[in-house]
Amino acid sequence: GSTVLAAQRPRSAAAAPGSRPAVRNPVLTKPQGSVDPTEPSQEDLSLLHGIALRYMRQRQIILDMTKQGGRVPRHIDSDFADLERTLVQLLRVVNKCFFQRFDDKQLQRLLRA
């Protein structure tokens, strides 16, 4: 019965009867200096920051133009669409688990909200 199960278990799990086996958290036990491929690089973050600033400035310019009753020039509108597509791609790099659930149109709507 229990002696057979105890013999099959690793030594650390059978150390004390009634105690819970030690569970190691892989996030907390990463070796120092190792690079996690799921985390964005510093270059990605700085690029995201720069593109996000340009996007917000361009968005504010477009909102001001439409508020004043003027039309948005085509080159500004196409530049804005390019910035939006670039920002969507960079957002996926920042948090792959979360942003992979959305398609491009949903992320663009998220940005505009």
* Low-pLDDT sequence parts: 2-14, 23-32
Q: Calculate the mean pLDDT score and round it.
A: 74
Total number of helices: 5
Strand content: under 5%
What letter string, H or E per element, gives the SSE order?
HHHHH
Class inferred from helices and paired strands: mainly alpha
Radius of gyration: 25 Å
Overview of this structure, please?
The chain is built from 5 helices and no strands. Mean pLDDT is 74; it is low at 2-14 and 23-32. It has 113 residues and is mainly alpha-helical. 59% of the residues lie in helices and 0% in strands. The radius of gyration is 25 Å and the shape is elongated. It starts with a helix and ends with a helix.
Summarize the structure.
The protein has 113 residues and is mostly helical. 59% of the residues lie in helices and 0% in strands.
